[in-house]
Amino acid sequence: MATKTAPIKKVNPKVTEPKIVEKADVAKSNGEATKATRLKVAKTYKIYIGGQFPRTESGRYYDLKLSNGKVANLCLGSRKDVRNAIQVARDAQHGWAGKTAYNKSQILYRMGEMLENRAAQFVEELILTGSNTNDAKREVEQAIDCLIYYAGWCDKYQQVFSSVNPVSSSHFNFSQIEPTGVVTMVVDESSALLGLVNAIAPVIASGNTCVVLASNQKPLAAVSFAEVLNSSDLPGGVVNIITGTRKELLSHLASHMDVNAIYLHTEQVEEIKSVQTLCALNVKRCIIDQTTQWPNENPHRIIDFTEVKTTWHPVGI
Questions:
Q1: Whole-angstrom Cα distance, residue 276 to residue 98?
Q2: Are 75 and 56 in contact (CB under 8 A)?
Q3: pLDDT tier at 4 (50, 70, 90 boundaries)?
Q4: Stated pTM of the model
Q5: Residue 87 and residue 49: Cα distance in Å, rounded?
Q6: Which residues contact 78 (CB under 8 A, 6 or more apart)?
């Protein structure tokens, strides 16, 4: 006897579209909706050598705790970074000294313009490293004014400090001011921006180039100031900024044989003696600054980093 089987029903499967999940979709957790948030791009604080922003060749860094509770990573500069910076400063010095005084003045003025345009950023970074709002605003404004001040002196200091000297022979005797060359600088630890600008501006106004060790505890504004330099028509290598520690780098900045002068802001007797001893190796000029009140603008700060060239010209022959 044949058995009956139930007829097989054909079912057309439902075609479902794939669900596209957007970043802004809601993620459900414990029955409650939480909206996804965007992570901001964190700024990387690098050193500034030869118009570029490399990381330190050593790959080292140190942590800096900010006033908002966050931690910034700063490059811990090495002896090799110092040597690289001095080399590019030497290569750039002849070209920078050869620019007209008017052109140097334009570039320093442009630096002031760019700092003015980014004033809010610098105020924020000064606050992050411990300044209150009023002090931060005042420091940025004074740094801008300092750049404009030395921009005005670029084409005037020669007239003020050069001379025609009286001599007993039948000659004209002229004294003319020339840049000393490459200057290494260790700036004020307690002033993040103003001490840095007050050190750099008079040095480059006369045609010198420099390698600067920024404040170790307040370096954010110094790194950002390098970005201002980079966008101000200043040739690469004229100003080079390194972050790191005095304990490790001070002796290298003072002893390098291709450096013509060093600027040191300190009140530490041991540091002064050490640097003066190292400067004697190639008779480089040593300028010790113990200024406690900024700004300290003075045309004589330009002359601190210049040499006097005297020329004799016979007459009546």
A1: 30
A2: yes
A3: low
A4: 0.85
A5: 10
A6: 56, 57, 58, 60, 244, 248, 249
148: nearest Cα among 211, 82, 226, 232: 232
* 39-51 residue pLDDT tens: 888 888 999 999 9
> Going from the N-terminus, what domains does the chain have, and what CATH number goes with each?
61-314 (3.40.605.10)
Q: Look at residues 259, 243, 234, 241 and name the one whose alpha carbon lies nearest to residue 183.
A: 259
* 102 φψ region: left (φ > 0), alpha (ψ -120 to 50), beta (else): alpha
Which tens digit of pLDDT belongs to each residue from 250-284? 999 999 999 999 999 999 999 999 999 999 999 99
Q: Provide φ and ψ at 83, rounded to 5°.
A: -65, -45
Q: What length does the chain have?
A: 317
Closest CA to 178 of 300, 312, 311, 305: 305
What is the structure's pLDDT at 15? 47
The dihedral built from the CA positions of residue 142, 75, 133 and 111, taken in this order, carries a sign that is positive
- For 90-119, the DSSP string reads HHHHHHHHTS-HHHHHHHHHHHHHHHHHTH
Angle between helices 101-117 and 119-128 (to 10 degrees): 70
Using CA atoms, how far residue 125 sits from 32, 84, 121, 163, 198, in Å, is 38, 28, 6, 45, 18
What's the pLDDT tens digit per position in 70-129?
889 999 999 999 999 999 999 999 999 999 999 999 999 999 999 999 999 999 999 999
Query: Where does the pLDDT of residue 30 fall: very low under 50, low under 70, confident under 90, or very high at 90 and above?
Result: low
> What's the mean per-residue pLDDT of the chain?
89
β-strand partners of 174: 164, 311
